């Protein structure tokens, strides 16, 4: 009988979000994991179980391939307004950062989202320059930057404006944003032993600096 714990361990490695950071050897490594998993399943005495197990893994690999091809695991910039609308409406979970390149706090938010995107492979992370999407900015009533809006099943589920909910501090930890997105339901709990980032309280709170689009 195949070792169920071994199969579970290999499957976890295959599907872990951090694998989406894609180095040059990642696909070869993925193939090696699948080959080992396939061999483990084939050791099962029941042919039906073997066939079913291999089918599940093959379908999951295909699904992961499709997600990679749609830029999951990356933090990318979208310049076309129609494409932004398409992504927000079709993705299961999507995080959109509405930003301005001349605003320091947007750059700070960028760095944190870029760290989280490879970790949460099943959520699409994008940024959009507000001047490229005037209709959408007006439609979503975006007035203050930085602004991060969470979409779940094509619906705006939550939004984060400025840094007030992140300690009102330019030096906030990535974990603070991670926890905020987790509570919004736009990211799922990572595989393994939990978040790799730790929340550290800061005593260097600063006056909130915001970018008002109406100014």
From TrEMBL:
<protein>
    <recommendedName>
        <fullName>Phosducin thioredoxin-like domain-containing protein</fullName>
    </recommendedName>
</protein>
<dbReference type="InterPro" id="IPR036249">
    <property type="entry name" value="Thioredoxin-like_sf"/>
</dbReference>
<feature type="compositionally biased region" description="Polar residues">
    <location>
        <begin position="1"/>
        <end position="12"/>
    </location>
</feature>
<feature type="region of interest" description="Disordered">
    <location>
        <begin position="1"/>
        <end position="29"/>
    </location>
</feature>
């Amino acid at each position: 009988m195949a070792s169920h714990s071994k199969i579970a361990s290999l499957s976890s490695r295959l599907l872990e979000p951090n694998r989406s950071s894609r180095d040059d050897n990642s696909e070869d490594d993925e193939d090696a994991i699948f080959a080992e998993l396939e061999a483990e399943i084939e050791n099962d005495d029941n042919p039906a179980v073997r066939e079913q197990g291999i089918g599940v893994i093959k379908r999951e690999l295909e699904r992961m391939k499709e997600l990679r091809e749609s830029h999951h695991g990356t933090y990318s910039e979208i310049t076309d307004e129609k494409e932004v609308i398409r992504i927000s409406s079709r993705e299961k979970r999507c995080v959109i950062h509405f930003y301005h390149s001349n605003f320091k706090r947007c750059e700070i938010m960028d760095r944190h989202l870029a760290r989280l995107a490879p970790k949460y492979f099943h959520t699409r992370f994008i940024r959009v320059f507000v001047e490229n999407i005037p209709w959408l900015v007006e439609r979503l009533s975006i007035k203050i930057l930085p602004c991060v809006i969470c979409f779940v099943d094509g619906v705006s589920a939550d939004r984060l404006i400025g840094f007030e909910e992140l300690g009102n501090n330019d030096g906030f930890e990535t974990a603070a944003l991670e926890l905020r997105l987790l509570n919004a339901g736009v990211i799922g709990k990572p595989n393994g032993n939990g978040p790799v980032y730790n929340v550290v309280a800061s005593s260097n709170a600063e006056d909130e600096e915001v970018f008002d689009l109406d100014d």
